[in-house]
Amino acid sequence: MPSVLFVCLGNSVLKLGNICRSPMAEAVFADYVKKLNLNFTIDSCGTAGYHVGENPDSRSAAECRRNGVAVNHKARQLTKSDFTNFDYILVMDHDNKTDVQRVKPQNSTAKIFLFGEFDPENDLVISDPYYGGRDGFEKNFRQVTRCSEGFIKYLQQNKEI
C-alpha cells in the first residue's frame, strides 16, 4: 500500500505549523482507509518546526471528534528522509507546495500534489482555519473528507491499490 504524508504550515509570522490542517487530513484519511480495510503508512508534518511535539489545535481535534474521527498526532517538521520514505506528499496550499518543492532533495521519490487536486468539487486550496471560528474547521473537515475519497479513487484508477 502507498505511504502518504500530509503537509501544511499555518503562519510563519506567528510561527504556527502542523497543528490544524495536516493533522486533520491525516486523521480523516486514516479513518477512511481503515473503514475500507486498507493499510497505509500515514503521517503529517509542517514545513517548519513550529509546535514540534505538540498536539493538534483543540478546534481541529474537536471537529474530528464531532465527526467520530480519532486524532493521534504530535507535530513535527518535514525532513529530507520524508521524500524517500513516503510515496505521496499531499500539501494543503500553493505556498506549502512551493516550500516542499524548494527543499526536495535530488533523490526524492515522492509525488507531490495539492491535496485539493483530489477534491471532486475542485476546491484546490485547503485554507488555514486558525484565525476564524468553528466554521473554518467544519469546512476543512468536509473538504479533507472529499479529498480523501478522491485520492483513494485516484489510487484505484492508477492500480496502486
UniProtKB/TrEMBL annotation:
Entries under SUPFAM superfamilies matching the protein: Phosphotyrosine protein phosphatases I (SSF52788)
Molecular function terms, GO-annotated: acid phosphatase activity; non-membrane spanning protein tyrosine phosphatase activity
Protein localization: Cytoplasm
Catalysed reaction equations from the record: O-phospho-L-tyrosyl-[protein] + H2O = L-tyrosyl-[protein] + phosphate
Keywords: Cytoplasm, Hydrolase, Protein phosphatase
UniProt domain Phosphotyrosine protein phosphatase I: residue ranges: 2-154
Cellular component GO terms held in the UniProt record: cytoplasm
PANTHER family per UniProt: LOW MOLECULAR WEIGHT PHOSPHOTYROSINE PROTEIN PHOSPHATASE, LOW MOLECULAR WEIGHT PROTEIN TYROSINE PHOSPHATASE
Protein name: Phosphotyrosine protein phosphatase I domain-containing protein
Taxonomic lineage: Eukaryota, Fungi, Fungi incertae sedis, Chytridiomycota, Chytridiomycota incertae sedis
